[in-house]
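__Record contents__

***
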Amino acid sequence: MMGELIGEVFGTFILILLGDGVVANVGLAPRLAAPAYNWNTITWGWAMAVMVAVYVTGGVSGAHINPAVTIALALKRGFPWGKVGPYIVAQMIGAFLGALGVFLVYMDGLVKAGMPNVWCTGPGSVFGQAFWGGAGGAAAGGYSLGIAVIAEILGTAVLLWGVLASGDAKNMAVGANLGGLFVALTVLAVGLCLGGPSGYSINPARDLGPRIFGLIVGTKGLFDGLYWLIAPVIAPVIGGALGVYTYDWFVTANLPKS
């Protein structure tokens, strides 16, 4: 059990170190002009972060690195409920430490920029400031909390479909140890196709752990209102459950029995 928890801490640390790292890199644009902030760069960076984290720690803990995945696997895949709480705590610790790693790497740029929100999704994030008000054109407005919740639920459901399909021997399971790559590409697809309204947290630990760290180092507005709880934390848990149930309803039930 302790080894599994260490794996979850380490895997989630890698996820946030690289994921929030790419946000800080292109958001602060230390070597490029401000228009270097590019959504494609962000989505590819996060996908590669998932891939590295899964391959590094998958053999130790299964590389859930996401409370929504852990809860979904407990609901329908026999993951022990007694491990759910410890796994989530480990994921939160790893996410917090990953944000610390990003802070240490980009400290100079973050301090000079006034400690912007490179940590988490939602109002005040670097994405919102750089895209809507940046060189891309005039402000185009934002999305409501309700729309962000829908985006998070469906995005997390898609993530679970990819996770479940990648290891489903009765379906077209990914072979040759390519499961981690397939999951990473699923995350890429979610970011490119569904990530706009909410910034695609699709992972409560990914959002809340760095958000807490951002509060400590002085980023403003991270816990204003209830957005921080509803869209990036509660909605992914609902989406994960929806994903695992719908996969069994629409796919598992119709696969060959032999």
